[in-house]
Amino acid sequence: MKLKKGVKKILIIILILLLVAALGYGALKIYNKFGSNKVAKKPEVINTIKEYGYNLDDNATKLYSNLFTQLKEVLQEEEVNEEEYAKLVAQMLVVDFYNIDNKMSKNDIGGVEFILEDYKENFILEASNTVYKYVEHNIYNDRKQTLPKVKSVVVQNVKNISYKYKDLVDEKAYEVVVSLEYETDLSYPKTVTVRMIHNGKKLEVFYMK
Description:
Strand content: 25-35%
Strand order of the largest sheet: 3-4-5-6
């Protein structure tokens, strides 16, 4: 049975409308997932300790921000209390490293600025292949993954040690042991040992375990 021209025309229009509706629905789904309503987050520096090269980003936790403020006060003293400096470096390194919830991806490794320059590349590589290996990206602030949040950090012990690095022998290097408490126990380390040496006026970490 042949359809009349008018009926054919109506069917063609309906098919076109259905096709447009399907394309529009698909475009809407794509927009909702990747559209302009999801802007990539870029941390901004909100505080610095210029003479030492330390920066505080706006995505830092309250705990880390408080430690940063304490560090800035210690380093601005006419005579720096090195033991306090060492204790704060250890705490900040460990807090920033193990508070993974505020990190962008597996490559956003916490605490890198405290690591001895020659050790940084290996530190980042090892972290991204172990502790940070399965961290999902959170560029658009839509990650659902449960990751560790450090609730508190306490210095358990601090002492001077001797350490030789290349041609440098540091008889007053530091070893600091800290304990961590997490908001939720996800089986991350609760006690960490940090060792650091002098590099000019800075203390830089060469060991963390």
